[in-house]
Amino acid sequence: MKRLSMLGAAGALLLTTATVLATPGSGITPVDMARGTSAAAYTITTEANREIATQTLTFAPGGTSTSGWHTHPGPVVTIVQSGTMKIWFSSDCTLRTVTAGQAIVVPGAGVFDLARNDDPTVPLVLVQTYYNVPVGGALRTDAPAPQCSRAVPAVPQDMAVVGITAVNHSRVRMATALNIAGAANTDLLIQQLTFAPGATTGWHRHPGALTLAVESGELLFTHADCSTTAYPAGTAQFDPGVVHLATSAGASTAFVTYTNLPVGGAARIDQPAPACTATPAPTATPAPVATPAPVATPVALLPNTSSEGMTNVASGIGLLALTVVLTIGCAGLVVWRRRSA
Is residue 297 part of a domain? Predict the structure, then answer.
């Protein structure tokens, strides 16, 4: 019983500690648009002052919907929300099949690809984030079909977009260059965040790097050293996975693309508030110094205690003494004369 009591007390202490450390957010509504596991490692690189765009593509069923051969200005995070995607790359002409709950990062930057939905009844839905897009530029550029005569199965020669509906969610500018290294067998997640006025994320960090595109409103990020950076609508923030807090004075909307998440794991980890947020202890007010009581002025024994009065007294005493001496002297002189006579 004593051992059980000790274990119970330890558990209660751990629970209390966790409660103290946790700083959850409030006023935020997250919606997971798509989440998938990447079987292969990947790299997301961009130049500075480029755009990031988030989009949903729906390929109609029936075996005829296709993206046609094309390329992108930069990497594209592609998550299959539903259906099955068949995709070919010009680099090797090999077919890859990506199903719901899986993800792939299309390299872009001169590598051509083609995606199809060959299912006769089920639509293919992709949620994508495009990187390194020139400001105001196109998300894709048509490209010629590669000639891979020995590829099995045969490489489609589709050149035009057929049967695809696109919904644009966000397109904003990223001021900084990016270089994100993604590990194999990790999750990618694209999420929409809606912030109510006065919302806060609480202090937290993420398991991997992410990009956040502010579509509307403005978000204020407070860093671990308590410095702040404002991100208004139309701008993007890169977070390498450090401790931070975000707040929204008014209503705001953002789209977040997470990388390197544990498979099926949490996208955020609550953190304690950093030391710089602590309110300094009030300085004790020193006790007032007692004012010494005034020294009583002694009663004067003489009517005049000034230096002038003392001089007058001394002069009077001296004159009196002189008078006595002269009187005695005169009396002695008289006596002497009488005796002499």
Answer: no
